Amino acid sequence: MYLGTIGLGVASLGLIEGLADFLVSLSKLVGETVGHYVHRKKPLTAAGYLVTTLGTSGIAMAHSLQAVLGLRALAWAARGFRSPLRDYLLAESVESKYYGRAYGLERAGDMLGAVVGPLMATLLLWSGMEFRTVMLYALLPGLLATGAMLFFVHEKEDESRGS
After folding, report:
1. What stretches of the chain show up as alpha helix (H) in DSSP?
2. Domain count across the chain
3. Is 145 inside any structural domain?
């Protein structure tokens, strides 16, 4: 519906989502490879959350197919890149016997956001708020997730470096 308000049709949606899905898959491979070699994953993971947030909310300011396509592609590439790094951090933070609980809690939180976010957006739209304003409100949960990553996640000390 938002794309229609800026004069873009269904073909645009297919192009945008197709490219975004391709980039999220490709960037997961890159993120996984990087995760094998970097010791400090938290800053890269937090950066992935921030870029995803800014790219997604930035679409509210876009007025052309190129702008929407670029921002969505950037946001989804960052999302794909951060996911394996987040999974490394999660695996390092719990004993292996608790992996199921840890990953189940992470997935439950993600699913809760996937349900509550669109419901909130729908309520805001029904209340008369403009699409762009609703999309800008998406900054809040994204910035909260970035902050949580930066301030509440603790990386496991690397014994091989003596730290």
Report:
1. 2-5, 10-37, 42-58, 65-93, 99-126, 131-137, 139-152
2. 1
3. yes
